Amino acid sequence: MTITFAHRGARFEAPENTIEAFRIALARGATGIETDAHLSADGQVVLVHDRGVRRGVRRRRVASSRAVELAAWGVPRLDDLYEALGVEYELSIDLKAPGVGPQVVALARARGAAERLWLCDPDLATLLELRGLAPETHLVHSTRRRAIGHEIERHAAELGRASIAAINLHHTDWTRGLVALFHRFDVGAFAWDVQETHHLRAMLAAGVDALYCDRVARMVAVVGEFESS
Predict the structure, then answer these.
(1) Beta bridge partners of 212
(2) What are the C-alpha distances in Å from 89 to residues 114, 223, 225?
(3) How far apart are CA 141 and CA 57, in angstroms?
(4) From the centroid of its chain, how far is CA 168?
(5) What is the pLDDT of residues 61-101, one digit of tens each?
(6) What backbone phi and psi angles, to 5 degrees, belong to 13?
(7) Beta bridge partners of 58
């Protein structure tokens, strides 16, 4: 079954990275939620994409704000997500701040959700550090094909040896052959920014294991149609 990650929740139906956006995404049938993690000034994991939040002309820096202050600006904590929506879904988190990974793992583990957690980072060294800390958690190398260069098979083998669960590439980077290459080393193929119906179908035909999409209902419908045919 292909994992359907709602990118920052149902962000066209509610403000992105909010509990309401996540709630709508799951109600629309997404099997996973994608979000971003920073640390607040008081050391709590907060779910927001950028290093600052804006309301009109006012701005607040995430790292210098307490979680309760950020909540007033619509930024939830990871704990708030688990408290509101439980743990019966896949959760993909982009690690946006140094040191946030271990805290995310600890929170997920406390909720019994570590086995449904997918931690994404472009820095392979960060993932390798997390591997020993969180053996039950899925680690994902988020990068671009051009960043790997000509050593693509060596990279696939390295990820396989390190028990990195998946590589996450832009959908335009994937081919059926590239998917097969990573699968040969037991590394999953994840595709992000898959928005249009024909792109969703192309990725499914190529054999990817997970999709990241802003249009949740469209993604769910296309995957349902593909997997039932």
Answers:
(1) 5
(2) 11, 17, 21
(3) 35
(4) 9
(5) 999 999 999 999 999 999 999 999 999 999 999 999 999 99
(6) -115, -15
(7) 55
How far apart CA 149 and CA 172 sit, in angstroms, is 15
How far is CA 76 from each of CA 62, 63, 80, 83, 147, rounded to the nearest angstrom?
A: 12, 14, 6, 11, 33
Amino acid symbol at 116: R
| Domains with residue ranges and CATH for the chain | 3-37+88-228 (3.20.20.190)
pLDDT digits (tens, 9 = 90+) for 160-182: 999 999 999 999 999 999 999 99
For 199, residues 6+ apart whose C-beta sits below 8 A from its C-beta are: 171
> Could you tell me which residues are beta bridge partners of residue 45?
39
3-class DSSP string for 115-180: HHEEEEECCHHHHHHHHHHCCCCEEEEECCHHHHCCCHHHHHHHHHHCCCCEEEEEHHHCCHHHHH
Burial class for 146, CB neighbours closer than 10 Å (0-12, 13-18, 19+): exposed
